[in-house]
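We append the chain.
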Amino acid sequence: MTCAANALGRVPEGDFARCDPEVARAALAPLAALLGLDVAGAARAVLDAGTASVRAVVDTMIRDYRFGRETAVLVGGGGGAAAVTPHLARAAGLEGRVARHHEVISPIGVALALVREQVERIIPGATQEHILAVRAEAERAVVAQGAAADGVEVEVTVDPQTSTVRAVATGATELRTRDRAHRADDAERLRAAAASLRAQEARVRILAGTDAYTVYGTEVRRRLRAGRQPVRVVDADGVVRLGVSDARVRTTTVGAAGEALASLVREATSYGDGGMRAPAVRLLVGGRIADLSGVLEPEALPALARSELRTRAAGEPMVAVVESRA
């Protein structure tokens, strides 16, 4: 992979993966002759083959985590990142870049890695108590593996067709949660949001915010159809943590969350041939994004929300991002 990227002149001077392009082309010449291609064609074939399996993983993650392809960014780490990431991004039609100091990302990544645990139970006619029990089991599991308890995020999915209740808990180790020196200023966060929204900065406005997150939105007008409000949640480092194609945003407090959520859920619940579908709800409170989007039954949302907010002070500010399901 590294030889192929250098043969095509794609690895910049001074990069950890850089070598003499002429030497790389000479190394690929026998393969090119065997394939009946020129050296550049052989190099592209090597990169295509090498990134195919990685692209399959990327596509699966985008689907499973419900990322919008317009907001997904590939960030390469490791000594060979410059040999892989640009070609993979080009092939997948995504934005891609190589992280600063990427040659040491792999060992640092091990030290700072997120802890993740999934708990899945088949429970016919699952009640709110069943759902909360599965959620608590997943949360306990990641804390037992070393995650900081106050930073654990749990996503719960309830599939009424298969009677499956699934809870995916993620948390960071104490090392990862330490404060870092750099924090993005207002201008940096706005630029990140505008770039993700693919909108001019002048058309992006702040909709809400907490100490940890700022919520940005813009208006998209459509002919013969209702307009929509794409939303991006940006953290203190200037990283887009959440992207929603059309959402309602409401600022409230933990103590008033029940009434505010009930109103939002009523407004955003959709009705169709398949019955009622609860909106996708995310709650921004403290340094957490509580993702309740896996719940399709409106009745289950209040109990999950109370579970997420149980340790918070009643006066603490909270932002709800609510997305209707078409």
